[in-house]
Amino acid sequence: MTPFDFFVLSGLLFAVGLFGVIVRRNVISLFFSLELLLNSANVLLVGFSKLHRNLFGEVFVFFVLAVAAAEAAVGLAVVVALYRYRKSVNTEDFSILRW
Amino acid sequence: MREIFFYLFAFLSVAFAVISVTHRNVIKGGIALLSSFVSLGAVYFTAGAEFIGIVQVIVYGGAIVVLYLFALMTMDLKSFGKEPLRTLSVAVGGAVSLVLLVSVLYAGYKFYGGAVTAGISGAKEIALPLFYRFLLPFEVVSVLLLVATVGAVAVGRREE
After folding, report:
1. pLDDT digits (tens, 9 = 90+) for B96-135
2. In chain A, which residues have their Cβ closer than 8 Å to the Cβ of B38?
3. From the list A26, A67, A78, which residue is nearest B83 (CB)?
4. Residue B69 in contact with residue B27, Cβ under 8 Å?
């Protein structure tokens, strides 16, 4: 394993997640893509942590996990509330939120 | 041996990520995302990050994806409707993510660093920096989780 392998894995995951964020219109799929973006950062943090023989990167991954869990809980609550209001999870039906 | 498993699980996680992003059925996308996260946990194991691999499977696989699937169960999947494939957004998304991928790969190619040596970092090794050097952030994270829980309940509550 070289550092380049971690770069490749992280870059591929980030590219896939970014593609999903731009292309998908379903809010749940958008959340899936967001989780992929967070995970790609985690891959590089673990890789650098192993490269430098320093555990701070892995500690940071732990914090990223906690923030991801909080984001998922609040985001899903918002989506469920919006679904009750609009009976839809398509982002185009939420254009009323736009100023 | 470790390298073989690293490449195998890295390939699996990217393949499942592609499925989860492109699949039209959201439930199947969620299951693919679950597989992608479990494969990433295996990647962390092959890199020697034992504790992170376990937490990845428990938190991402066991908590977050299951939370999404539970929320999907409260919705009417038939009402989601078809997502028309817009060529413009696919082209823009593909171009942007391709540019980003190339720049990350270029940075990785230019990056000088030795081989990744995998000492195993289990719960014991992580606990030392986590509870000495990063104790305050750790406590702040607990407050963040409490705020997120209260906020989720407050937002998701049904107005009477």
Report:
1. 999 999 998 998 888 876 777 767 888 888 898 889 999 9
2. none
3. A26
4. yes
